[in-house]
Known about the structure:
Layout: E1 4-10, E2 24-29, E3 32-38, H1 42-48, E4 56-60, H2 66-69, H3 72-81, E5 88-92, H4 96-107, E6 115-119, E7 126-130, E8 134-140, E9 148-154, E10 160-161, H5 163-169, H6 173-180, E11 185-186, E12 192-193, H7 195-198, E13 199-200, E14 207-211, H8 221-224, E15 229-233, H9 241-247, H10 252-262, E16 266-270, H11 280-287, E17 293-295, E18 301-303
Parallel strand pairs: 3-4, 4-5, 5-6, 14-15, 15-16, 16-17
Antiparallel strand pairs: 1-2, 1-18, 2-3, 7-8, 8-9, 9-14, 10-13, 11-12
Amino acid sequence: MTPFKVQILGxxxxxxxxxxxPSSQLVDVNGKLFMIDCGEGTQLQMRKLGVxxxxxxxxxxxxxxxxxxxxxxxxxxxxxxxxxxxxLTIYAHQEIEQFLTxxxxxxxKNLSYNVRLVLLKRKGxxxxxxxKSITISSFPLKHRIATSGFLFKETExxxxxxxxxxxxxxxxxxxxxxxKNGADFITAKGExxxxxxxxxxxxxxxxxxxCSDTAYDESIVPHIKGVDLLYHEATFSESEIERTAKTGxxxxxxxxxxxxxxxxxxxxxxxxxxxxxxxxPLLEEAKAVFDNTELAEEGKIFEL
Length: 304
């Protein structure tokens, strides 16, 4: 099965602490690394965790708050020092140009590779990247500035052809791909063998959704319905519900309520406020609503 895993590089919020790094994650799909957000110190986290920077394919920035982008300049510069030549694509809202362009012009005039910016749309559900293994889409979140969530979903798989059927009907190699795509098989005697006799259903498409930063917003539920893994911010506990609403964030309970409504398989909560030294109360709050919940933790890997 194609590797599909998520590694947490940082799960803290705006104010840095010694417990957590600011927001950043890596999604590994079939050997390609897709980064979501790039808070301060992200490249150091990659070094500490033994991540090969050369495998980084592209970066997806949810929004232009510092704890999600301050790591970009250092990472871009280091990739140049390491001799990167492949183009690096950064997906972000249009304000990224005001943030990055001056830096690139001043520090990176002789950068060994090209940095390409793809601007995210502020409205609707939009496909922004696809290859043979994965599609990546964006959708709006509810925060103080333009913010996007991301859905990583495996492309539709081919049906599994049964080995014994190949032998029984003496199916030529040239026909196998057609059968995997749903075609029936016609024998040399003209007998039509239905596809469902020859094959079994394909493996389910695995999916991962990232929702940070955002206030409680049920409008995202259709976009994340049934995902295998949901990362949803849980900046505060219910005791800080008023502050949560003012800052455009979510409580652990609210994250769990979204997970329950969306019928996801597993919830991971993160983007923890610096006020929480002990995260167990946040976990308990979420698990009271959605039992299959885990805390994000630097270095932790979730395999789908």
